Amino acid sequence: MEQEEQSLESFLTWGAQLGISDSSNTKQPQHPPSSCLGSSLCIAHFRHSGGRGLCAVRDLRKGEIILTIPKSALMTRESVMEDKKLCVAVNRHSSLSSVQIMIVCLLYEMGKGKTSRWHPYLMHLPHTYDILAMFGEFEKCALQVDEALWVTEKAILKAKSEWKEAHALMEDLMFKPQLLTFKAWVWAAATISSRTLHIPWDEAGCLCPVGDLFNYDAPGVEPSSIEDVEHLLSNSSFHDAVVSNGNKNVMVDAEKLDPLSQRLTDGGFEEDVNAYCFYARAHYKKGDQVLLCYGTYTNLELLEHYGFLLQENPNDKIFIPLEPAIYSSTSWTKESLYIHHDGKPSFALLAALRLWATPQNKRRSVGHLAYSGSQLSADNEIFIMKWLSKTCDAVLKNLPTSIDEDTLLVNAMDNTQDSFTFMEITKLMSSRDEIFSFLEAHNMKDVHSFNDIFLSRKARRSMDRWKLAVQWRLRYKKVLVDCISYCNETLDSFMK
Ligand SMILES: C[S@@+](CC[C@H](N)C(=O)[O-])C[C@H]1O[C@@H](n2cnc3c(N)ncnc32)[C@H](O)[C@@H]1O
């Protein structure tokens, strides 16, 4: 433990030497401080929201600069390929994608050990990940829902084929055998997927020492339009925050509005200071975890790219099987026909169902109403609500386990310290196939071997992924139940 703390301290000293700083004072100090953190942030552990993360060491105001990482500290393809041997070899394999090359760059630096210029940073990267490409057959199946199974299968196949394609380059570079393995490849790919930040000059992104310690906050409640930003800027306390820093980079202004999502961004590379700059996305009290929004993701996408999911995710959506005639009744894309995290059907799904439930010869005359989101008639609305409710109910009944069983299973997994409780809880489940498959997959045929002391590291990792899979399918089922309630409430409103 002491050794770990020392190594973390030397990582933060290394960061300070490279010019990384969490101070809002933009003047360069004459001597680098002994740590790059301490003025605004510190590293802390948040058990239920991301593990290691960054914590406010003082009250932080929304919009103020909290961390700067100079370009020279970023690990990019360009900076790693300053190594001539690597650069020459990469140029001989021009068919590889930018991300494949970035993965090779990371493995190459790992292979250098202490001589890597990023060694203090590389030492603090996670050793394992829970992203979908790392799911084995057992954990994949625990997702239960076809859509999730396909996404997992696709992620595994993609990782395998990209690894094979890059093999010749890695052999050219004479990688040590352990860096040539699929396991090493998936580790590096997961690092790139879950930790790189966007940079304008390279679609592979960059690894950003210290800046990649922010855990994720979903976008959702920030101002969503220019008017909101104008309102914010006219709000005196916010304006004070902007002006008191006296630096235009410190402003959260209309330029920082992401034109696609129309949301405020909280970090980005800034050409004029040649650095990655992070801003507080909210007011934080001393001791709060400071978060960063990496983008808008559903829970399945979070699992695929980052290896976690959110219990409350305002951007979650689920898909249910629809009849081909529904897809062909409108020009909405398949991706737009979904159910929101709170059980409400998407705008496009409602419109598509309303048109599909209209006799074909009448669709033209009501098309404009459907596309503007209007109900077409009471009968039409009652029909589609009944249909949607019945379909969600059928999906729920077709899944091998119920919400109650999944809840029991997650609770049991939280109780693995006590093998007796785990087995007692799981006895309440109607189908114990999944539990037996897990025990079998890890050679734990009898209950007594299900003991924390004997749960191998591999089995424990597998259980973490299994738990994520069960949590995901549980959220999926809850959205279906909420959709049924939404349909019933709408139906009730017609009865009044
Ligand atoms: C950029 S890193 C953030 C720092 C990371 N916790 C660490 O220890 O290095 C992203 C990873 O942090 C974890 N993470 C981030 N936000 C999270 C959240 N809200 N809940 C759970 N895990 C989260 C996930 O493992 C994700 O892949």
TrEMBL record:
Example of a GO biological process term: methylation
Listed CDD domains: SET_LSMT (cd10527)
MF terms (GO), sorted A to Z: protein-lysine N-methyltransferase activity
Keyword Methyltransferase: yes
Record's keyword terms, sorted: Methyltransferase, S-adenosyl-L-methionine, Transferase
The SET domain, residue ranges: 39-295
Pfam families given in the database record: Rubis-subs-bind, SET
InterPro entries with a match to the protein in the record: Rubisco_LSMT_subst-bd, Rubisco_LSMT_subst-bd_sf, SET_dom, SET_dom_sf, SETD3_SETD6_MTase
Gene3D superfamilies referenced in this protein's UniProt entry, alphabetically: Rubisco LSMT, substrate-binding domain (3.90.1420.10), set domain protein methyltransferase, domain 1 (3.90.1410.10)
PANTHER family the UniProt entry points to: PROTEIN SET DOMAIN GROUP 40 (PTHR13271:SF91), UNCHARACTERIZED PUTATIVE METHYLTRANSFERASE (PTHR13271)
UniProt protein name: SET domain-containing protein
Organism: Canavalia gladiata
